[in-house]
Batch of 2 targets.
Target 1
Amino acid sequence: MPRPVWSGTISFGLVAIPVKLYHAVRRQSVAFNQLDERTMARIKYKKVSSLDGEEVPDVHIVKGYEISKERYVIVDPDELEPFIPAATKTVDLEEFVDLEEIDPVFYDSAYYVAPSSNPKPYVLLARAMEGAGKVAIGRFVMRNKQYTAAIRAEEGRMIMSTLAYADEVIDPTAIDELRGIDEIEVSKKEIAMAESLVDSLTAAFEPEKYRDQYREQVLDLIHIKADGQTLVLPEACVEKPKVIDLMTALEASVAAAKLARGRHPSTADHENAVVKAAERAPEKSLAKQPDPKQPDPKQPDPEQQDPKQQDPKQPAKKVAARKKKSA
């Protein structure tokens, strides 16, 4: 049963709505402990001085801010006290904005907002925001830290996302590789091929299809070792092919996407398809003379034919032939 992490009220105008916040996302990971292999005892850390390696008692540990190399300004906790935000229990809504105006880079942690008592004011605000297509922006304090938050409504329920501050978002022009990116020239043919690849991979977003495969495999490994079973290491991943140019890469990717269309391929399936397509693509692009083993370029490629023009009795045979050939 989820437990609330904050409770208070949403306030705008003269309206106050009692609410509770619940984590909307629960991070999943595999955590390991450091052990002494001789005794299987946990390894603990001590606070030691970098000068002589001696352990330092908590009473002698102070806060310091480094202003230059090995130069610190000591700040006493009492000096910070006046600046700590008052632990109010109110989310003060300041304005309503359109959802598309908020760049996703600003989003941080997500929380479900639930009514704390009488749900009617909560439902009223949620339906009003959803009907208007607006997102509420407000400020609140949680654990002695002030946050800016965006509250949006979906299907009558409210979701709050804390936001990064503007000076916390890195300017992309500060990254060397992103400077002058607008000056890079690409041909219309390359754009068309890239759009074809995007179209081939376009699908409805289904988050259930995407899993943390590393975490699942590590947990399987742990269970196998815990049960005393024999460990069988997985095969090494196939190295991705090195293609000769961008167009060859795009053509190979489009071919792989066509082979995998109609199902959600695993990473291995997709990489194998790319490998096979890329191995064929460079030979075709580099050859100046027609290769008798290659299909006649004047003949239409059965994989690229309009589905309406194909013989309805042939698809099953062609799919089986392609699977046999790729195998």
Target 2
Amino acid sequence: MTHRATLTVSGCPASEGRFPGFTTAAGALLATALIVAGCGSPAATHGLGAAPVPVTAGTVVRRTMPLDFRAIGHVEAIETVAVKARIGGALQQILFSEGDTVKAGTTLFVIDPRPTQAVLRRAEAQLARDQAMLDKAESDVKRYADLVTQDYVTKEQYDQINADAAALRAAVEADRAAIDSARLDLEYCTITAPVTGRTGVLSVKVGDLVKANADAGMVTINRIRPIYVTFSAPAHRLAEVLAHRETRIVVAVTLPGDDTPAATGELSFIDNAVDAATGTIRLKGTFANPDERLWPGQFVDVIVTLGDQPDRVVCPAPAVQTGQQGQYVFVVKDDQTVEQRAIRVDRMDESDAVVADGLSGGETVVTDGQLRLVPGAAVEILTGSAGGSDAS
């Protein structure tokens, strides 16, 4: 006896009907599985008569794009000097406040000069004594020179007088050197700023006994106008940087979370070797920093612009998706259905993707809602959904 199975799948009216030829329960179950699988496929879900999927979209444009790359950098003072005492003594005066901007040559500290003044006076007195003795010895040399020719004194006596005079001449030179040293030490009692910059935290107070050339400086001065920003770039960027080094390479930096316009400077240093451990090259940008917005130790976002590339195809970065076969976008066609299209991206940032192949200017691409799409699905573009490239 032949049994006919009648199968009805809920929610799929097209599945209702009779299936002759299924003579067992196993055959009926197989038919049911096939129908359910067909009803649950993306093609069935987005097929003819399915509601359009709401998406946001942007327009692909052709425009001149800057050839640039991004990095994380940190700010460095162009000069940093730890001010130290070159002579020991009691600190008598501090003539600035912490955080002041000082000019080169400005007096910062005064060490008690009285001990050094006493040393200078003693050296001057010693010079006067030895100079008087030298004058007497030189007179003796002249007198003995006549006497030795007349045999009134021996040659040995004459040689001794010459030796005494030479020794006194050497003593006088030593006294003069001692005076110069004492005068230099007296100058060292007044400590001036070696560079123009902003002072940091004081490590001494009036009355402290400071030591000459102590490890810890009395204060540190940072020159921050102009100022450096140091950053590293991948080694594969080196060829591009070197190719543009004869022109002015613009470096722009922004502080994280700061909405003010970027500070701009120019690339001023390329390290002479790639770091083998990290595969990066160290670079520096110099910034005028007139408003002292950049401060030593800050971390900043860096954009290095090497030049401009005209007539490039640009699409909104959120439109670019990545699958097993590579990168792709959903292109909205004239009939408001989508086409999945493979593309090749040259470079991309947070807002724009420069497309080397796969798109042309004027096309519309989906920027949000891709997870609900399959090729051929109908879409409804939400009002006001222009992508990043539209606004450019």
